[in-house]
Amino acid sequence: MRLALAQCNPLVGDLRGNADRLLDTCWRAAGSGADLVLAPELALWGYPARDLLLRPDLRRLQHQQLDRLAAQLPVGLALLLGVSEPAPGQQQPDLFNAAALVEAGHWRILARKRLLPSYDVFDERRYFRPASEPCLLELERGGRTWRLGLSLCEDLWVDEDLHGHRLSGGDPIGDLIPLAPDLLLNLSASPFAQGKAQLRRDLAAAAAGRLGCPVVYVNQVGGNDELVFDGGSFVTAPGGSVLLQLPWAEESLACWDPTATPGSPAQAIPANEALLLRVLVLGVADYARKCGFRRALLGLSGGIDSALVAVLAAAALGPENVQGLLMPSPWSSAGSIDDALALAERLGLATHTLPIASLMAGFDTALAPALGGAPAGLTAENLQSRIRGTLLMAVANQQGQLLLSTGNKSELAVGYCTLYGDMNGGLAVIGDLYKTTVFRLCAWIDSPEAGPCRAALGLPAEGELIGRAIREKPPSAELRPDQRDSDSLPDYAVLDPLLKGLIEELRSLEELVDSGVDPALATRVQGLLRRAEFKRRQAAPLLKVSGRAFGSGWRMPIAAGA
Question: Is 153 annotated in the active site?
Answer without folding.
Answer: yes
